[in-house]
Specification:
Elements lengths: L2 H11 L5 E5 L5 H9 L4 E4 L2 H10 L5 E4 L8 H4 L5 E5 L2 H13 L4 E7 L12 H8 L2 H4 L4 E8 L7 H22 L8 E3 L6 H6 L4 E4 L1 H4 L5
Parallel strand pairs: 1-2, 1-8, 2-3, 3-4, 4-5, 5-6, 6-7
Length: about 220
């Protein structure tokens, strides 16, 4: 597996406005460093313990993204350094992240995760639940968390039309939220959608951030 070449091939195929998050979960430091040596700096992890260990051991100019669903009681461990938390789906979690932002004297960026797939195993907000959160007085009190966009995962299927339609749903949700709640926000810009199997469709449908693991590092070792 030539990790450096894989990274460069994917990056060269992306428009300038799309960022690549290399999903390094379960991968050893040496493989992450192979990507680092060709200039890649954005990596995604989904387990707090693994992420903290890698943060300690690897170069400090890496931009770490938490791409899983963070448990409220674990946020404090990643709050000092995390660049972006992808999977936020409740006001309670926003409040927790804000509280840890206060303690660390920093504003933490997050994405709201939406349920766009046909699979019940995937989690995320409905548009109605997002409205409830974003129109609440409570969310306006949160000065140490910034919602910078949306995130969602398409159904795991070979039906490209279904995948495309689900990505369109997320793009429409983004546009609707931008108009209604974030029209004055210069930071509400991200649509995180697309993974190893479907990112070319996601990019065509307006993704600004793709999360790619196996296409870079090969199959995962669990």
């Amino acid at each position: 597996m030539d990790i450096g070449r894989n990274i460069e091939e994917i990056r060269s195929s992306l428009p300038n406005n799309v960022r690549l998050v290399a999903v390094s979960k379960t991968k050893p430091n040496e493989e992450i460093m192979q990507a680092y040596r060709v200039g890649h700096r954005i990596f995604g992890e989904n387990k707090v313990q693994d992420l903290c260990k890698k943060y300690e051991e690897l170069p400090k100019d890496i931009e770490w993204h938490f791409i899983g669903h963070p448990q409220n009681n674990k946020v404090k461990y990643i709050a000092p350094f995390i660049a972006l938390i992808h999977g936020v789906d409740s006001l309670k979690l926003l409040k927790t992240i804000n509280k840890e932002g206060v303690k660390n004297k920093r504003v933490i960026k997050v994405l709201l995760q939406f349920h766009i797939a046909q699979e019940s195993t995937k989690f995320g907000l409905s548009p109605g639940e997002a409205d409830e959160i974003l129109s609440s007085e409570a969310v306006r009190q949160l000065q140490h968390v910034t919602i910078v966009g949306v995130m969602g995962m398409a159904t795991y299927t070979n039906d490209e039309n279904q995948i495309r339609n689900e990505f369109r749903v997320l793009k429409n949700i983004f546009n609707s939220l931008k108009n209604r709640y974030f029209s004055d926000s210069e930071s509400f810009t991200e649509i995180s959608m697309g993974m190893s199997g479907d990112y070319p469709i996601a990019v065509e449908e307006g993704s600004t951030m793709i999360r790619v693991g196996s296409k870079i590092f090969g199959a995962r070792n669990y």
